[in-house]
TrEMBL record:
Protein origin, superkingdom: Eukaryota
InterPro entries to which the protein is assigned, alphabetical: FAD/NAD-bd_sf, Sulphide_quinone_reductase
Protein name: Pyridine nucleotide-disulfide, putative
GO biological process, alphabetically ordered: sulfide oxidation, using sulfide:quinone oxidoreductase
Keywords for this protein: Oxidoreductase
GO cellular component, one term: mitochondrion
UniProt GO molecular function: FAD binding; ferric-chelate reductase (NADH) activity; sulfide:quinone oxidoreductase activity
EC number of this enzyme: 1.16.1.7, 1.6.99.3
Length: 309
């Protein structure tokens, strides 16, 4: 897993107890849910300081659209999205990016790119940003703010420069999930430098690959041609309000790789129920028993008939 850098943002550690400031890590906690009582918020901001390899990017929209769905009064609502790396798109996968941009316009959400949050003034409810291209400083008022700090890798990786890449992630082959230099090291999940979004669905797809390849090597069958490859599959479920959800699935190269149908960019109540009820049930009842392998567990032959819909 990855940690978060609270020290990366000036004064951030001092405002953890303020109800108007929410962190992804406590979205489901009481502090966060109490903020739903703010029913007259005019300026609702969600801020990301992360790079695209992290698993939290899609949670920005999930959070902001959940709150908008709960705040009933019709008024101006704004989303200010900052990312550590300047990007000019709503989502890295083109088809879903187009769909998300349409929803943002429908919900009157303004997305400001290339801005970096550098300070939060809790008393005056002001956030200070720096334009990543021009260096210009801008101070903005907010009623409710959601912040996703940048990730922080565990200490054992920070203390092991020989096994990580330049960004500090475990340096493994993106297909076999084996370390590029040290053949007795394998990796999955957030700490690896796999070029895909780091989600639970991705880890469930990576695990069988490592198990299969590791068993192959330990069985004395050689390690030159490993039997399993990971294709970069990941899944980002994005709640868009009104009891609907967009189930975004793609693989390496941001190539759409849907499980259920070809047009999953259309929000669906079915996907919402899947995320709300079935996935948690599978996590607590199937994963501990080792019988759940994510997408491969729900991709029998009959589902392929729907991929052309």
């Amino acid at each position: 897993m990855t940690l978060i850098k609270l020290k990366a943002l000036k004064k951030l550690q001092m405002i953890l107890s303020v109800l108007q400031v929410l962190f992804m890590i406590i979205i489901m906690c009481q502090n966060s849910m109490n903020c739903v009582e703010i029913s007259e918020a005019e300026k609702l901001y969600s801020l990301s300081l992360i790079d695209l390899r992290n698993n939290l990017g899609f949670l920005i929209r999930l959070f902001i659209w959940q709150k908008i769905d709960l705040i009933k009064k019709e008024q101006e609502r704004k989303l200010l999205q900052n990312q550590e790396k300047a990007v000019d798109y709503a989502f890295p996968q083109p088809k879903y990016a187009e769909a998300l941009e349409k929803i943002q316009k429908q919900k009157n959400i303004n997305v400001y790119k290339s801005s970096n949050l550098i300070e939060v003034n809790k008393n005056n409810r002001k956030a200070t940003f720096q334009n990543m291209k021009t260096g210009e400083i801008q101070e903005i008022d907010f009623d409710l703010i959601h912040i996703v700090p940048p990730p922080k890798l565990p200490k054992f990786l920070q203390d092991s420069p020989q096994i990580v890449d330049q960004q500090g992630y475990l340096d493994i082959d993106e297909y076999t999930l084996r370390h590029k230099k040290y053949k007795n090291i394998w990796g999955i999940g957030d700490c690896s430098n796999i070029p895909t979004s780091k989600t639970m669905a991705a880890i469930f797809s990576q695990t069988p690959v490592v198990v299969d390849n590791l068993y192959h090597v330990l069985s004395g069958k050689g390690d030159q041609q490993l039997p399993s490859n990971y294709d970069g599959y990941t899944c980002c479920p994005i709640f868009v309000g009104n009891g609907k959800l967009m189930l975004i699935e793609y693989k390496y190269g941001y190539i759409a790789n849907e499980t259920f149908m070809a047009h999953q960019e259309i929000p669906s109540q079915f996907f919402y129920k899947l995320k709300k009820d079935f996935f948690p049930w599978a996590y607590w009842n199937l994963v501990p028993k080792g019988v759940w392998h994510g997408r491969k567990a729900i991709l029998p032959a009959f589902t392929k008939a729907f991929t052309s819909i």
